[in-house]
Amino acid sequence: MTDKLRLAVFLSGSGSNYEAIAKNCAENRIACEVAVVVSNRAEAFGLQRAAKYRTPVIIRDDRDYPSREAHEAAIVEALCDYPCDLIALAGWMRLLTPAFVGRRFNARLGLPGIVNIHPADTRAYQGEHGYEFAMGLTKKGPRLTETKVTVHFVDAGMDTGPIIAQRFLPVLPDDDLDALKKRGLAVEWELYSEALDWIAAGRVRYENGKVIVT
């Protein structure tokens, strides 16, 4: 595959994963380009990061729409001006509807059309506060000795889609939440770009609901 994979990056907050992707694109470390950033919050700091890289932005505040479907319809309409191969969720704090997810399947690539980064093993923990889960600060269990960062395709559930890549992250005895998050984000920034580059290179296949990386 010689053409760059065109990405629409969806974010709601800081956008540090977006910036890591954009930096790797700008330095030609991965065969991707960010065509547009989409945010559901005008105050998201990630939009300042997008300005730094001169990435076009779409802002559609979900609070301005009566339903998820109406909000997503407005995003779909705006995306018509920015053709893209894949949506990369990077701190997008909205659960996408099954209809939206289903329509994004990329027939040319033969792959689901939305990917996400999750700061936990998605088979063990879904939803927000993945690092808090690893630290034993949720009701889901005790403190772990190690956790995982996961890149996965998005399906109709919350963090339940097929896994593309995972990387172990130790939870050190003297870690506090900030220390774990700092090291975890460094893993996220590297792993997300790596997985996107695999897709761009045609190394990721999707067969019978499972991901195969060659």
Which terms summarize this structure?
alpha/beta; Rossmann fold; two-stranded antiparallel sheet; globular
Q: What is the domain tally?
A: 1
- Using the CA coordinates, give the radius of gyration: 17 Å
| Molecular shape | globular
CATH architecture: 3-Layer(aba) Sandwich
State the CATH superfamily name: Formyl transferase, N-terminal domain
Cα separation of the termini: 14 Å
| Largest sheet properties | 7 strands, mixed
Mean pLDDT across every amino acid position: 97
Are there runs of 5+ residues with pLDDT below 50, and where? Answer: none
Beta-strand percentage range: 15-25%
Which structural category do the helix and sheet elements fall into? alpha/beta
Give the beta-strand count: 9
Describe this protein's structure:
The chain is α/β, with parallel strands linked by helices and 214 residues long. The chain contains six helices and nine strands. The strands form two sheets. Strands 3-2-1-4-5-6-7 form a seven-stranded mixed sheet, with helices on both faces. A two-stranded antiparallel sheet has the order 8-9. Helix 1 crosses helix 6. The longest helix has 24 residues. The protein starts with a strand and ends with a strand. 41% of the residues are buried. The mean pLDDT is 97.
